[in-house]
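## Example record

The block below lists the input lines for one assembly entry, exactly as stored, with component labels intact.
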Amino acid sequence: MSSPTASAVLSAIEARWHPRRVIADTQPWATMRFLAGNAWRGVVWFVVVVVLVALGFGFATSVVLLPVALVAVRLWRLAARTERRRVGAFAGAAIPAPYRPRPPGGWIARAAGMATDPATWRDLAFLLVGLPLGIAELVVAAVALFTPLSFVLTPVAYANTGHGVGLAYPVGSWFGALVVALLAPVAAVASAYVLAGAARGHVLAAAWLLGPRKGDQLEERVDVLTRTRSGAMEAMLAERRRIERDLHDGAQQRLVALAMDLGMAKEKLDRDPVAARALIDTSHEEAKRVLADLRDLVRGIHPAVLTDRGLDAAVAAVAGRCPVPVTVDIRVPERLPEAVEVTAYFVVVEALTNVAKHAAGGATDAAVRIAKNRDTLIVEVVDDGPGGADPRRGTGLAGLADRVAALDGRLAVQSPPGGPTRVRAEIPIR
Amino acid sequence: MRVVIAEDAVLLREGIIRLLADAGEQIIAAVGTGPDLVAAIVAHRPDVAIVDIRMPPGFRDEGLRAAIEARRRVPGTPVLVLSQYIEERYAGELLETGAEGIGYLLKDRVADVADFVAAVRRVAGGGTVLDPEVVTQLVARRRRGDRLDALTPREREVLGLMAEGHANAAIAERLFVGDGTVEKHVSAIFAKLGLGEDETGHRRVLAVLAYLRG
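Predicted structure tokens for the full assembly:
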């Protein structure tokens, strides 16, 4: 999930404004339009921001301050997004969004996440700087446009007024006027560079303020890694506890009972062969149940068929064991890295376990869809049960989220009361 | 009946040998790896080979691969594959080598001695024996609006027993009903699934499986 850095924008800028290409630029008008656009947009955004700030002060003592501030932040982030897109399109290289991933939780957590994200405030800075920057660019563009024109017209101006216009104002002779007129192409070339420089400056400013920062990215990456590492650790420990509990409550107890029954059968063999036979019968049944228990447990730790034959076969088998009919649709022709396959598999297992457990009597069918979307594996399990699953309460789903996060993936659980429940995991493939 | 056994777990291998010897069968070779199995089958031409799917060195599906390889080298060798887990996929791969004399059972089934010996003999005789779990998985995998939905629970039970390779009489005995009742169920199943009814024996199993895997 390596997000492109600002360097992509910078190299696009280098390529576009390479000295030789500036002269060959067949679209000076596009550059002009860009600069003019920067100016009027600078004005608009400045006004919008000022109005938003004024509103904020207006509601400063009111309970609605928070919602108003939230709307304001969203608005300016939206504005920044349109600028990011527009400047990126002009520069020929998208400026990646620098925001931190949206934190889990309700709107308060999201608002806090936005407010503490430095990128939010850099967005604001860009919108404010846009006004002086845009106006300066407009002036530069006007001068750059007017100067070659004025050079061409200098002889005419001299004939009428006795001096030149614009930069050529000091011209005081016919000779001078003609020289200036002949210099017009040179002025045009210089103008092209000036225009290009102004545009380049704007793109750089945008990339700097609107794009991601290397330091931020690293810092954020460290945060995420720290969080997911401890999450993965916890998930692993929880898993070990579960296995211990399952062995203790299941196979171990059953084997004790089995040994006991067999011991009794041995005692009775001579005195009461009929009772002994009955005990051996129960022991036999019990032994088979222990086997089934252990088989389920071992499969829960790691399914052999997943390693041998991949997701398709493994998920089909899980779906086959679910008491609710499951439609399986897997469109992943190739084998994926083991960690990705195993995680995707357990997403399906956990989701279907919940379908079987909580939706008993409610769900009548479920669907598993697994597909690859570029470098991401999308796993989706939907059931028509009564809903109301809460990933924060069920340890299974929480552990699952940790497992997915450990691979830089995301797990979303939608389960409104009344259903349907939709568990969706996005796991980067690498 | 001359039997080759491929099983790396000594306890289970000795157990199966004891169990089959008890039933009067002759164990001509007991091996612990895939290549040894292929060699033993080529050398001895047994009446049936009993093969564990997971064997050294990789402990993955060496047994299955060896069984497929052995059937390629000595066509028609009956093979009964045992596995800790039933995976419909493995059953499919086995059946692709031809369905005559193919068995695929959960290891646990060894515990029901009489049933297990009967299954070994059915496979040796060219029959097809599939674990009930294979059918469960295949049935569960069906798509919505499938013709399988039209089957009654009883018919599904009969379908499962058919896939296990049981003849009508054996099915009747297991379900505690008369032969006529089973025949009625079978024709109902074939009619509902749109299959030709004249198939018998392993061909019948195949018809059902082909439909389920479709």
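Chain A touches chain B at residues 284, 287-288, 291-292, 295, 298-299, 303-305, 307-309, 313, 316-317, 319-322, 325-328, 365 (CB under 8 Å). DSSP finds 14 helices and five strands in chain A.
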